[in-house]
Design goal:
Length: 301
């Protein structure tokens, strides 16, 4: 029963910590506005040449037009294809995209094993099993290739090596270990029955050993522990950038809401200006923030 409980704790922790992260980002003070165009919120005409609603005469008296279709397209391009990385660092895009596509396949695999665990025998059973195998192989191979490639990039390419922290190496190593363990389990269970057994154990609240004649394979136990660890670890680290990306796009890059009297923007600015200074915050300001700085006397030679 311990393995079943570990799976539940990891799942609940992942969801809870992700929600907590969203709430923390949502409570941050007003960001620094930079109004850089083009942004997909603008109408098609203005988006084409990088214009904004502020070009129009008496724009503050007119109803603002939002291009929801273009906003959705831009979001999907970034989520599904990591478009900005492709444009700015094309030579390294395929490594990052391999890892991300592998993660998407892993999510699809998780959904498919859950469906397959409780799907009655019918004509769909074979289709779900085939898709589960396909998604599992894609997830394992692409995540393994992507993490190895990104590790090599950070180890041997100087412009990345100089600012890579130990935690970033650790993040890639645990992702690699998890994907590699998934592939090892698949080699001993080509139908991914272990995934469906985990789902059955969780949602029927049974010990996983009930599905293995009392003895769960050691490599599967190790995989479950790694999967549980990484599920709890991800929302606590920079790997949770899936949360930050929403705010980066919607609340920073695309935010061009006008600061009008009585608006929400004005209220946010006032609240940020009046927020008490945290005495425990990191000191980042320059010396001139505390008053005039005396010029140093030149050293006489």
């Amino acid at each position: 029963m311990i393995l079943t409980l570990i799976c539940w704790v990891a799942l609940i922790a992942f969801i809870g910590l992700t929600v907590k992260k969203f709430m923390e980002y949502g409570k941050l003070p007003q960001h620094g506005r930079q109004d850089l165009y083009p942004i997909p919120l603008e109408t098609d005409e203005k988006f084409r040449y990088g214009g904004s609603y502020m070009e129009e005469d008496k724009w503050y008296e007119k109803e603002r037009q939002h291009n929801l279709k273009r906003e959705l397209i831009d979001m999907l391009e970034e989520m599904l294809f990591i478009k900005k990385l492709f444009i700015n660092q094309n030579s390294f895009w395929w490594l990052s995209y391999s890892l991300h596509l592998g993660l998407y396949a892993a999510i699809a695999w998780s959904v498919l094993v859950l469906i397959g665990a409780f799907l009655p025998a019918c004509f769909l059973t074979g289709i779900v099993t085939f898709l589960t195998i396909l998604a599992g192989i894609i997830a394992g191979v692409l995540m393994t290739v992507g993490t190895i490639g990104l590790l090599c990039k950070r180890l041997f390419v100087r412009e990345f090596k100089v600012y890579t922290t130990p935690q970033e190496y650790f993040n890639l190593v645990i992702l690699l270990a998890t994907s590699a363990l998934g592939l090892v389990n698949w080699l001993g269970d080509m139908q991914f029955e272990f995934g469906r057994n985990i789902a059955r154990a969780m949602f029927t609240f049974q010990p996983l050993s009930n599905f293995y004649d009392g003895s769960v394979p050691a490599v599967l136990v190790l995989f479950i522990i790694m999967l549980a660890f990484i599920s709890i670890y991800i929302p606590l680290t920079k790997l949770s950038h899936y949360v930050g990306k929403y705010y980066t796009f919607h609340k920073v890059i695309w935010d061009n809401a006008p600061n009008m009297p009585g608006s929400k923007v004005e209220a946010n600015i006032i609240a940020a200006a009046n927020k008490p200074k945290d005495p425990n915050a990191l000191k980042w300001e320059a010396p001139h923030m505390h008053g005039p700085v005396e010029a140093e006397t030149p050293v006489q030679k």
